[in-house]
Write a structure and sequence with these properties.
The complex is a heterotrimer of chains A (165), B (285) and C (256). In chain A, 27% of the residues lie in helices and 31% in strands. With 165 residues, chain A is α/β, with parallel strands linked by helices. Chain A folds into 2 domains: 1-30; 40-134, Elongation Factor Tu (Ef-tu), domain 3 (Beta Barrel). Chain B is α/β, with parallel strands linked by helices. Chain B has a 6-stranded mixed sheet, with helices on both faces. A 4-stranded antiparallel sheet of chain B has the order 2-1-4-5, covered by helices on one side. Mean pLDDT of chain B is 82; it is low at 1-16. Chain C has helices at residues 3-36, 40-50, 55-78, 86-124, 127-133, 138-176, 181-191, 194-220, 226-255. In chain C, α2 (40-50) packs parallel to α6 (138-176) and α4 packs parallel to α8 (194-220). Chain C is elongated, with a radius of gyration of 21 Å. Chain C starts with a helix and ends with a helix. Chains in contact: A-C, B-C. Chains A and C meet through α1 of A and α2, α6, α7 and α8 of C.
Chain lengths: 165, 285, 256
């Protein structure tokens, strides 16, 4: 049956095209590191306010993603948010006095954890807690800080308007 | 014509001795509230061409579907080849159908296959035969209906008569025991009609099968039928050889056989009084 | 009961009856699907029928959907000064919503109607009945391969649609409107997860199952007349569209 060979060929091409499209979508438009399949270790950080940070958000140093936020919980005794970070085992020489801040990526971007290196000779180990943290910036607090500082300087200093950026 | 029925338990008469290949006894069937058959008794004799005739709408096609088991009687029994059709499970039913060949009114060829593949269809579905054997079988059957040269045409390229002949070839390719014809003469020109008539008779005799022809072409079927039934109002009103039927006293049989415009089947659809309606001014169109 | 309430109840009853019939039919089709895979020739022919023949329309529409998305997205994001997010926005909306839904609607229109009318015609010309008499189960021979052909084709078509659409977005955004190419792709990569791609493909698969099932059901159960076949194809498109959008909502809720 001759026409069936043409059908087979066309179908084969179609299926190939379909899979190629799927492959393209999977590799070309998703994060390069699918998930940290390599070894990882955990760090913990406690925040007063995590803002809009979500589980799965990236953890980066100098802009390079080195891990992910694994989970966010709340400790009833400490009254703080406890964030568990999973760091790629390749990055095992982070000074253990580095600080973790909650930053925002761009104007519409999500929030992530940025780690600034400290100066200690010792590195973090699995299960360590990050001591130095910077909470998420909450807009209302910023505004009230500005207002209070404005009010304060007006009281103390009548002429020069305080400029707080 | 006397027909013998199988006894109540259906198995007493040995199959080989039973002169009837198929028997319908006291069959009732309705569809959508409309009664089609009421106490229908029909016997299909082995090796004979049996005609089922009657005015339009008497459910003649339904009868064929009862024989193949596609429809189930509400009451009564349909016994084919000694087995009660209603008692068969799906596998047995399909086994029975392989012994039945059916010619549909419009051929019912599969439109995406050519003539050869259409005839080969039952073979390919049911038997694992070497290709050469399939080819020979198909060509033989096509030759029997006179269409061996059309083997590579598509159904859309065939005339009505040719399509029906291909369908006939397909119906006999598995060497069935019984052939059912649903209005085989409908819409054919005289030549094609002659061809089909000849094929029905010769196939029946040459292949030793039994044929059931549902039709209302009285003249054509009378020339080839061994026995006939005339149905009306869901029951058999007459049966016998074509000669017996022509001399039958019943008025409806007479009207049917002679093709009279008026009689028990009235010419006029029920309507109010003619003069009264014409003079009635309150009914302005 | 006559009048409007009576009619509503009658149509509700009819709707429920049809729903029940379709569920039973779906059960039969799904039950016989594994067996039908033993005849790959039939399935391959149907993948060709539903998939390969739909490629042109899918790719064309994909391209234009992508280009429009590029234009609209750029215009919108420009108001916030975030044009570089075009890639991200387009990719995510295509993957999660536009891709599967538009592909399903196009599929219903092109392949669904073809399936319904083929089966309806077979029903009207007694081909299905003839198969039954020849002891061939029409479900297995004709219906299930068509169903499987549709189910296999839909996710593939969805992927092709999204890929071509992204190309369209890039064509308009980068080539035409001057969004930085590097930013376009890197922002996208940064925001799109494997889970998003999976979401789109899963939706494509589910829509494929639904639309194929509807098309095959309508065709198989069409009234054996010319109007019956016509009505079956119309119903296929309408019901497929509604069911797709309803399923879309349900799936989105489940997957978010």
């Amino acid at each position: 049956m001759r026409p069936s060979r043409a059908i087979d060929l066309s179908t084969g091409l179609f299926v190939l095209l379909g899979f190629a499209a799927i492959l393209f979508l999977v590799t070309q438009i998703t994060n390069r590191e699918f998930s940290l399949r390599s070894e990882t270790y955990r760090l913990q950080a406690q925040f007063d306010n995590v803002g809009g940070l979500k589980a799965g958000a990236p953890v980066s140093m100098a802009g390079v993603t080195i891990g992910r936020v694994e989970s966010i919980g709340y400790d009833m005794n400490l009254f703080k948010a406890v964030v568990t970070l999973r760091i790629d085992a390749n990055y095992d020489q982070i000074p253990n006095d580095s600080d973790a801040s909650i930053l925002t990526a761009g104007l519409l971007g999500g929030q992530y954890i940025g780690i600034s290196p400290g100066g200690s000779d010792e590195s973090f180990r699995d299960g360590d807690r990050v001591e130095f943290v910077q909470d998420a910036i909450v807009l209302e607090n910023l505004i009230s800080k500005y207002l209070f500082s404005q009010a304060g300087s007006r009281d103390s200093n009548a002429e020069a308007p305080a400029t707080t950026e | 014509m006397s027909h013998s029925h199988p006894t109540a338990d259906g198995a007493a008469t040995p199959i080989a001795d039973d002169p009837n290949l198929a028997v319908l006894t006291g069959v009732d069937y309705s569809i959508g509230g409309k009664e089609i058959f009421r106490g229908l008794d029909i016997g299909i004799r082995r090796g004979a061409v049996t005609a089922i005739m009657g005015p339009s709408g008497t459910g003649k096609t339904t009868l064929l579907r009862l024989i193949t088991g596609q429809l189930r009687a509400a009451a009564g029994s349909v016994v084919v080849d000694g087995r009660d059709v209603a008692s068969l499970d799906r596998r047995e039913l399909y086994a029975l159908r392989r012994k039945i060949g059916m010619l549909f009114q419009n051929g019912a060829l599969l439109t995406d296959l050519d003539v050869f593949e259409n005839v080969a269809f039952p073979l390919r579905e049911h038997a694992r035969l070497p290709e050469r054997l399939v080819r020979n079988l198909v060509l033989t059957k096509l030759h029997a209906v006179g269409l061996r040269g059309a083997a590579r045409l598509m159904p859309q390229q065939l005339s009505g008569g040719m399509a029906r002949r291909v369908a006939l070839a397909r119906a006999i390719v598995m060497d069935p025991d019984i052939l059912l014809y649903d209005e085989p003469f409908a819409g054919l020109d005289p030549i094609s009609m002659g061809v089909v008539m000849r094929l029905i008779r010769s196939l029946n005799d040459a292949l030793g099968i039994s044929s059931v022809v549902v039709t209302h072409d009285v003249r054509e079927i009378s020339q080839i039928a061994d026995a006939s039934y005339i149905l009306s109002d869901g029951r058999v009103v007459a049966s016998g050889t074509p000669t017996e039927l022509r001399e039958h006293p019943s008025p409806i049989v007479h009207q049917f056989m002679e093709g009279l415009a008026d009689g028990p089947v009235s010419f006029h659809y029920p309507a109010p009084d003619y003069r009264g309606q014409l003079l009635d001014r309150s009914e302005v169109a | 009961m006559t009048g409007l309430p009576g009619e509503l109840i009658a149509s509700l009853g009819g709707f429920l009856e049809r729903l029940g019939a379709m569920t039973r039919f779906a059960g039969q089709v799904l039950w016989q699907s594994p067996a039908a895979l033993l005849r790959p020739r039939l399935v391959v022919e149907q993948v060709y029928n539903s998939g390969a023949l739909s490629l042109v329309i899918i790719m064309t529409c994909g391209l234009f959907v992508g280009m429009v998305l590029g234009l609209q997205g750029h215009d919108l994001l420009q108001r916030f000064g975030s044009e570089e997010a075009l890639g991200t926005g387009a990719a995510l909306s295509l993957l999660k919503e536009l891709g599967p839904v538009v592909t399903a609607l196009l599929f219903a229109g092109r392949a669904g109607t073809a399936l319904a009318s083929e089966l309806g015609l077979m029903r009207a010309t007694d081909q299905l009945s003839a198969m039954e008499v020849m002891a061939v189960d029409p479900m297995r021979r004709v219906v299930v391969p068509r169903f499987l052909g549709g189910v296999i084709s839909m996710p593939l078509l969805t992927a092709v649609f999204i890929a071509v659409a992204l190309f369209g977005v890039q064509l308009v955004g980068v080539q035409l409107l001057g969004v930085d190419q590097g930013q376009f792709w890197s922002q996208m990569r940064g925001a799109v997860e494997l889970g998003d791609v999976a979401e789109g493909l899963i939706k494509g698969l589910v829509f494929g199952v639904a639309c194929s099932l509807i098309a095959v059901f309508e065709g198989y159960n069409a009234q054996p007349t010319a109007e019956g076949v016509g009505r079956a194809t119309t119903r296929t498109v309408v019901i497929s569209a509604v069911v797709t959008l309803v399923l879309d909502y349900i799936l989105t809720v489940l997957m978010l």
